[in-house]
Structure formats: C-alpha cells, structure tokens
Amino acid sequence: MNDVVHQFEQHFGVQLPAALRNAVTADRLPCENVMFETEDKKVAGWITEFWPVASEDGESYASEYEELSLGGLLPDNLLPVAFVANGDRIVVSLRGPDCGNVYYWGWSEEPDPESNSYRHMRRIAANFDGFLAGLTRG
Q: 102-110: which pairs have CB atoms within 8 A and are 24 or more residues apart?
C-alpha cells in the first residue's frame, strides 16, 4: 500500500497528511456504512464508501482529485476521500494552514458552476484520526 500512496503523491505532486497516510496504509478505514457529524452539528450523514488510493475501474483518490480538485470544482488543496449517500463528499486538506482538516463538502448545495471555494464546506475534524474517532455505526 505504501507504494500506491507514494505513486499517487508523486503523480500529483502532493503529500497525504500523516494521519490519513497512516490510516490508509494500516487499512484502518471502515468497510461498511458509517455516520459522521460536522463540528457545528448542522450536518450529519452516511458515508457509503471510502475510496481506494488508486483503482483501475472505479472511483479513487486519483480519479476524484483529477476530476474535482484539478478540474476546478474544488480548491486544489482538497482531496475527496469518501462518498456520502446523497452524492456529497468528505474531503481532506493536503496543504495550507488547514492541512489535515477533514470537511464535509455539500456539493449538492453548490451553484452551477461550482464555486471552487470553501463556501459549502463544514469542518468535521481537525485531523483524520479525529474524524475516524467521531464516526459511528448506525
């Protein structure tokens, strides 16, 4: 798994925050539906899928980052890592003053075209370990 993470980082010129990298390489991501809640308690929802770092035939960190972040729908420091039941995303900041923060991105609330901003973001946790600790099973 370390090789896959390294290839992703090299290809896109980014570095996964340590807590996310450790969770991915230690296979600590939930396998079934889990619930999250934003810090402000205004949004809660079901995460139905955590993506792999790379995939030949489906969504992955690589495909989501390329399509959404590099495609201008999200700021390019944000990496989508999970799918929410309503089509929204869980994203992690890769760099900047909020590096490592985990957010709920309300894609369904975005105007058309998307704002490419933090306007429809709500913070879930200050880091990926905190995010994982706050997840609950229905």
A: 102/126, 102/127, 102/128, 102/130, 102/131, 103/78, 104/36, 104/38, 104/43, 104/45, 105/74, 105/78, 105/80, 106/43, 107/73, 110/73
The pLDDT of 71-83, averaged and rounded, is 95
d(CA 80, CA 63): 9
Q: What is the pLDDT of residues 7-32, one digit of tens each?
A: 999 999 999 999 999 999 999 999 87
Q: What does the alpha-carbon distance between residue 20 and residue 16 come to, in Å, rounded to a whole number? A: 6
H or E element that contains 133: helix 128-134
Q: Chain-centre distance of CA 31, in angstroms?
A: 16
pLDDT value of residue 112: 82
- Answer whether 128's CB lies under 8 Å from 30's CB: no
